[in-house]
Amino acid sequence: MDIDLLYLVLLVSVLLIFHKLTTQKRKFQHEKQIPSPPGLPVIGSRPTLVLSDRSVIEECFSENDIAFSNRPLLPSRKFTSYNHVTIGAPYGNHWRNLRRFTALEIFSAKRLQMSSNVRAEELRIMVKHLFKSSLKGEKKVDVKAFFYVLDFNIIMRMVAGKKCIEEEEIDKDEAKGKMDEMTRIFRPDVTMALGDYFPFLRWLTYFGVERKLVKLHHKRDALTQALLDAHRNSEKSRSVGDSEVSGTIVDVMLKLQESEPDFYTDNVIKGIMQAMLMAGTHTTVMTMTSVISHLISHPEVIKKARAEIDNHVGQSRLLNDSDLPKLEYLHGIINETLRLDSVSVLPPRQSSEECKIAGYNIPQGTQLLVNVSAVHMDPDLWTEPEKFKPERFQDIAAEKGGCKFMSFGIGRRICPGASLAMRVIALSLGTLIQCFEWENGEDESVGAVKTKQNMPKDRPVKIIFRPREALVRVLDKL
Question: Could you tell me the superkingdom of the organism this chain comes from (predicted)?
Answer without folding.
Answer: Eukaryota
